Amino acid sequence: LGLAMINKHPRLQELKFTLYRIFRNPSAVIGFTLLIFFIVVAIGAPYIAPPKYPHNPYRMPHKGFSHTPKPPSKQAIFGTTSGQYDIFYGAVWGTRTAFRIGLFVVGISMLIGVALGTVSGYYGGIIDEVLMRFVDIVFAIPTLVLAMAIVVAFGRGLDKVMIALAMIGWRNYVRVMRSSILTLRELDFVQAAKIMGVSDLKIMLRHILPNGIYPVLVMAFMDIGSMVIVAAFMSFLGLGAPKGYADWGQMVALARNYIVGPPDDPLKYWFAIAIPGLCIVLFVLAWNLIGDALRDAFDPKIRRR
């Protein structure tokens, strides 16, 4: 009887329906499959590609100093890129780098954006006006231009790139969260909580935030992939990860002079570009597919169709 009562609990029923909506979507299945694959690779990196430098496992081992990439062989199953850095090692440990970039940047951005958006939408008035005008000012500067300016000002490096992206990414979450709060704050259950004397902080944390966070979560899943692309672009320009660091963008940068091979064999060095590029594409695709599935599952207009 107790188990039957638990199974009939409204929240549990809603959770089951949400999971059903998500996993009946073929795109979600593909997205989660790719994501699980990357998680397994990231966790098992020390066993899949044992580090040559235990004190610095993200430093790719290299087998010489030649600038010309070498094709796959028994010594390097994915070949080597310019500088003879092992592509297989970089692809494996670059998975950890991608997760670190995406989760750190989106986590900090969402934390700041949700907090400011909730306060702005709930209180309104002069607080809302000041915050929104500040967000408009930040939005007036293109993302890449602002990110590059911050990195150049504070010094190059992957950590600086991550901090710069986090300092910019929060602006999107403020607007999305604010739009949700503006609708929720006028609903009956919020007004009833105010009449009962519940503090503003409790109303925001217990009643408004759990009901308005879903659009932000969907955007966060999609932004994880986007931040990895932006960080890879910054590394390609030489502002991110240093040479020899296990980062997919840095690996593409190492092979920039060999995108096209000699005239008689233009695809001679395909492995130097295709393998790290494919890692980026599949990683971003996984998060985007999951984000699309979550959007369809949480959208109230199509949720019950």
Can you walk me through this structure?
By secondary structure, the protein is an all-alpha fold. The protein has helices at residues 2-7, 10-23, 26-43, 45-48, 87-123, 125-139, 143-154, 158-184, 188-195, 200-212, 214-236, 248-254, 270-298. Helices cover 70% and strands 0% of the residues.
- Look at the helices and sheets and give the structural class: mainly alpha
- What percentage of residues falls in helices of 4 or more residues? 55-70%
The biggest beta sheet reads:
none
Q: What is the succession of H and E elements? A: HHHHHHHHHHHHH
Q: How many distinct helices?
A: 13
Rg calc: 23 Å
The total count of strands amounts to: 0
Through-space gap between termini: 31 Å
Shape, please?
elongated
How much of the residues is beta strand, in percent?
A: under 5%
Segments where pLDDT lies below 50 for 5+ residues? 1-6
Overall pLDDT confidence = 84
